[in-house]
Amino acid sequence: MRRLHVHLLSDSTGETLENIAKAALAQFDEVETVRHFWPMVRTEAHLERILQEIAQKPGLVVYTLVNVVTRRILEQRCAALGLPAVAPLDSVSDALSALLGQQAKARPGRQHVLDAAYFARVDAIQFTIAHDDGIAWEEWEEADIVLAGVSRSSKTPTSIYLANRGFKTANIPVVVESPPPPALFQLKKPLIVGLTTSADRLIAIRRNRLLSLNQAPNTRYVEEEAVVRELAFARRMFADNGWPVIDVTRRSIEETAAAIIALVNDDRGSEA
Predict the structure, then answer these.
(1) What is the pLDDT of residues 175-225, one digit of tens each?
(2) Quick one: which of 73, 85, 210, 227 could link to 61 by a disulfide (CB 3.0–4.6 Å)?
(3) Helix 224-241 / helix 199-212 crossing angle, nearest 10 deg
């Protein structure tokens, strides 16, 4: 297996850069990647310390630096070391400049400005955390999305991801022995989405969860007949109420969230 050092330099939080690198690296197999993350690079002195590390551990350099001076220093030093240095956002910015007829503002972290959207996202995260696992159902009408599904069907991580995208999200476990509150079936504003999965996948996830908690892995919680009946009960509830259903068996959290956001946009478009 080949070993590759990847140096990620950003003059802001580096969140965008990290996501780009992660997506690109996922396309290659049999590569052991050592990522060196360098956020908030805004001075020549800071850059000089990083360049010393790059020289000791050469590899791919990926950067999002808007300051002309630090960019030039980085590019020149990488060229002298014979290392590739890539600015992944440059082509997008150049295309936008050409289309809009204006130069991009060279301001580090401008996408993280504290605007209305930022505070809306913070509000969504706070709401979602406070309405996890069926808590505070009296306030579900304030939600944008309500996720319903059996235990361990990715409700909570999907809710948190959606909250980070600005959607107030509540979630409730579907339990055969404990029906959800009647308020769930009377909601008007939120889009209710059912999450389901395969029995085999669910049993494996639940068994791993029990083992991580040092609990016996042989209970009704992971019994195949009980799990199949539980999933059938949930699917019947979703169908009876006409809720859209997403099978998360082979989906990542990001893919599930993207499908839900598409449903929300379709729903809002229909209302309009």
Answers:
(1) 999 989 999 999 999 999 999 999 999 999 999 989 888 887 778 899 999
(2) 85
(3) 120
In tens, the pLDDT along 40-50 reads 999 999 999 99
Give every CB contact of residue 268 below 8 A, 6+ residues apart in sequence.
none
d(CA 217, CA 111): 46
CB count, 10 Å around CB of 268?
Answer: 11
Task: Delineate the domains of the chain, giving CATH numbers in brackets.
Answer: 2-111 (3.40.50), 116-271 (3.40.50)
Spatial contact of 83 and 58, defined as CB atoms under 8 Å apart: yes
Count CA atoms closer than 13 A to 4's CA, side-chain side.
Answer: 16
- Between CA 48 and CA 174 the distance in angstroms is 56
- Strands of the sheet containing 31-38, edge to edge, are 31-38, 2-10, 60-64, 85-86
Comparing CA positions, the residue from 186, 184, 165, 166 lying closest to residue 175 is 184
